[in-house]
Amino acid sequence: MNAKKPISNTEDYLRMYRQMVRIRVFEDNANQLYLSAKMPGLTHMYSGEEAVAVGICEALTVSDKITSTHRGHGHCVAKGASFKEMFCELLGKEEGYCRGKGGSMHIADQSNGNLGANAIVGGSMGIATGAAFTAKFLGKDDVTVCFFGDGATAQGLMYEVMNMAALWSLPVIYACENNGYSEYTKTQEIAAGSITARAEAFGIEAHQVDGQDVLAVNELTQKLVARARKGEGPFFVELMTYRYHGHHVGDINREYYRPKEEEADWKEHRDPIKRFGAWLSKEGIATQEDLDAMQADTRADAKAAVDYALEAKYPDGAEVDMHVYVE
Amino acid sequence: MTNSRNITLSEAVNEAIAEEMRRDPTVFVIGEDVAEAGTPFKILSGLVEEFGTDRVVDTPIAEPGFMGLAVGAAMTGTRPIVDLMFGDFLFLVMDQLCNQAAKTHYMSGGKLNVPLVLRTNLGATRRSAAQHSQSLHALVAHIPGLKVALPSSAYEAKGLLKSAIRDNNPVVIFEDKLMYNDRAPVPEGEVLIPFGEAHVLREGTDITLVGTSSMVQVCNTAAEILAKDDISAEVIDPRTIVPLDEETILTSVRKTSRAIVVDEGHQNFGVTAEIASRISEKAFYYLDAPVQRMGAMDVPVPFSPALEDLTVPTSEGVAACARAAVRGEL
Q1: How far is CA A245 from each of CA A267, B91, B222, rounded to the nearest angstrom?
Q2: Which chain B residues touch A138 with a CB distance below 8 Å?
Q3: How far is B32 from chain A (nearest CA, A)?
Q4: Nearest one of A196, A135, A200, A195 to A166, comparing CA atoms
Q5: A303 — contact with chain B (CB < 8 Å)?
Q6: Quick one: DSSP state of residue A183?
Q7: Domains of chain A, start order
Q8: pLDDT tens, residue by residue, A105-119
Q9: Are B308 and B124 in contact (CB under 8 A)?
Q10: What is the tens place of the pLDDT at every residue in A274-316?
């Protein structure tokens, strides 16, 4: 771990650990809901990428904005969302963040600055850039982080908005989560050249960072956020990470595009939670028992939220044509 | 009207934007060549001098990019007026307009709003061929979450645009690019035309002519031609097609028993089909003739004037169709 210079105090470290565990536990529960046919539709797991969302969101304030993706539960949790409203949304219930109208791929949590997940790959890049435009236009010091995957770098919209963000020095950080796979295809088969060079072509300062190292991600993001607030943006970060599941929960037999040995290797040697837990123990910040207790608490919280959501009521049918237009 | 001046449709648009920008500091204009150039049609000339380049923002030629940026800006506390130079470029912004702007309020369960205006144009016969002449308003009218306004004169252009800027929903407003220099009386100061209220331009008893945008004048002229044949035509301008003032149209058709719907979009699956179908569904027993549709021909817009002029409805064509309807010759 790259924590030669501690960037924060013990509480911050433990909160980061807890947030990563919360994401993993949330996803384990969501996957079980799918496998036991209790969840309508399907969903995309963030497991394995926790250090990216947590390292970045821990460097943001509540009023800073993020835009998220179809693989968005991690961003949502990391930006401050609660399990109960999230599980209710996944199950299409009235108490969900979007009253059941968005589901897994569209959770928005405006109160925490989450402008919503987007089910069009790369679809939120304009929105994130526009949120940064608002901050500059209204003289606020909010920064916006645009999360997207390596697959989205193939979308033209990215180049159009990076051009404008660079021309106008907008306070936006483009965070490319490179998990090595563009849906069911190896990224190296769909992305020519270097990903960071794409941003550099616009004069945007670009970094590559180990996305399995939450402290490295957080340290870099803190610096970039501070500079973006001073008008030095935009920035681009490529976070090298890995998704443990398939493209979505139903993508189970996937050896035709990804070997099991590779998955096992990442889980065994590069798991962000294990690595950070080991570091916390080594530094004497938490004992293994403390970490185990935190995991157990989180699992109990998730179970309570899932139980609640399963019993929660569906929206009334009269809501179907509500919220098409603002009254 | 008191204190009315005859101003062009272009001046009316400019005035509406300037008034709203003075009233609300969160309103801004964004698009290609909107600042010093004032757009190729010179509609926005003078705005950058008053409001500066922070609020009249020139963009690269990147329609999906600035459309998407405007959606995010609208979601976070501003009111963008997006200038899309030609209606034909709607195809470039479809994802940002229809998948993002139109659905954000609904998908978020009412938590997020997208109060933006997309100003663009429609209209053929400018000899601009197939990619600068289309009337594509039916395309966006099909998408729930978007409102669609079709001003038919300078007065409507000002009043509908001001209402659009104050609306908390995404609104697409189509101006007829051939009418930018047409003058009409427009009151000075506040003109707000509510959405979903049709305007009855001319009362009549024999047939209802529903026209949109440029086709309102086509219908009006047709009504004058028909008057010489002692046929009394009622002319209705819906002003907005989403929301649509169905009641004013149905009330008219129940009185006249006949209707022609005229619109410059392609006839297939278009605005004329939608309105004609609603008349047939809801006023069927009042009808003495089948409801007629007159849209643009279902061909890409050709360049040659000899061909292009054949593609859009004309006053003579509407009058001939109305005569046939009234005489029971359909």
Answers
A1: 11, 36, 66
A2: 26, 77-78
A3: 12
A4: A200
A5: no
A6: T
A7: 10-311 (3.40.50.970)
A8: 999 999 999 999 999
A9: yes
A10: 999 999 999 999 999 999 999 999 999 999 999 999 999 999 9
